[in-house]
Design a protein that fits this description.
single chain; 236 residues; alpha/beta; Rossmann fold; 5-stranded antiparallel sheet; 39% helix; globular; binds adenosine-5'-triphosphate; binds magnesium ion
């Protein structure tokens, strides 16, 4: 049984179908890159898992139990956390409050312990804990978004475009942090990215999504070597 099983999912916005039968599974402790161009359906797939868009067809299971059509907080309780595209931090509240907002499923004492752990991964957030999130740099806001998602102690972390709009040196740092946190918490990570090269280098496996369907799935190494992926996604 896999940690996450996504089977034949169709994510829909009203009558608009954003994906057309997406199936894949995620095992414990692996990093999966979900790559594809604008509008391929990466975000819609992650949001369908979280219960943030309507699942018109298909099923989503965690440890074999269906969470299809469940509300987001119930999916979080099952051990899944989501860091949305564009970071979406609460700009007018402090770094600390942003992080605590990610901990609502933990008992209070546990939330403070967890906060300490998150600060150990992101020391910049500790230094800036009383500043408004909106005053952080783009890279710091991305760290905050990831830290907030991690507050719930997920087993599976869904990251939507964490590299978006950041300078290469910051992207590299965020990649190192993702790997470090993944290893120390035995996390499974799904990394939805347009930056295919970066994502596939961090990942063990990769999925290529095109117009709402999975076109290829393989080990990240194979995808990086594939002529098709090199031409279509790596600009080679
Ligand atoms: N709120 C929405 N209402 C209607 N259609 C939407 C909505 N959000 C996304 N879509 C459509 O769903 C399809 C998939 O979009 P999605 O945002 O999942 O792609 P993506 O792979 O995340 O793209 P990007 O790399 O640009 O973030 C697109 O055709 C898009 O227009
Ligand atoms: Mg997207």
């Amino acid at each position: 049984m896999s940690l996450l099983e996504v089977e034949g999912t169709v994510a829909a916005y009203g009558s608009i179908r954003a994906t057309h039968g997406v199936s894949f599974s995620v095992e414990e402790n692996e990093i999966i890159a979900l790559v594809g161009s604008n509008g391929a359906g990466k975000s819609s797939t992650l949001k369908a898992i979280m219960g943030l868009v309507r699942l018109a067809e298909g099923s989503i299971r965690i440890d074999g139990d269906s969470v299809s059509g469940e509300r987001p907080y119930r999916v979080v309780r099952r051990g899944v956390a989501f860091s949305p595209e564009g970071r979406r931090v609460f700009a007018a509240t402090s770094v600390l409050e942003n992080l605590m907002a990610g901990a609502h499923i933990l008992p209070r004492g546990r939330a403070h312990e967890r906060l300490d752990q998150i600060f150990s991964y992101f020391p910049r957030l500790r230094e800036r804990s009383h500043q408004l999130a909106g005053n952080l740099s783009g890279g710091e806001q991305q760290m905050l978004a990831i830290g907030r998602a991690l507050m719930s102690r997920p087993r599976l972390l869904l990251l939507d475009e964490p590299s978006l709009g950041l300078a290469p040196v910051i992207v590299q740092r965020i990649g190192e942090l993702i790997c470090e946190i993944q290893a120390s918490e035995n996390l499974a990570v799904v990394l939805a990215e347009q930056n295919s090269n970066w994502a596939l280098r961090l990942a063990t496996r990769g999925l290529v999504l095109e117009v709402g369907r999975i076109r290829m799935q393989d080990s990240a190494g194979e995808l990086l070597r594939s002529d098709y992926v090199r031409r279509a996604y790596l600009g080679m």
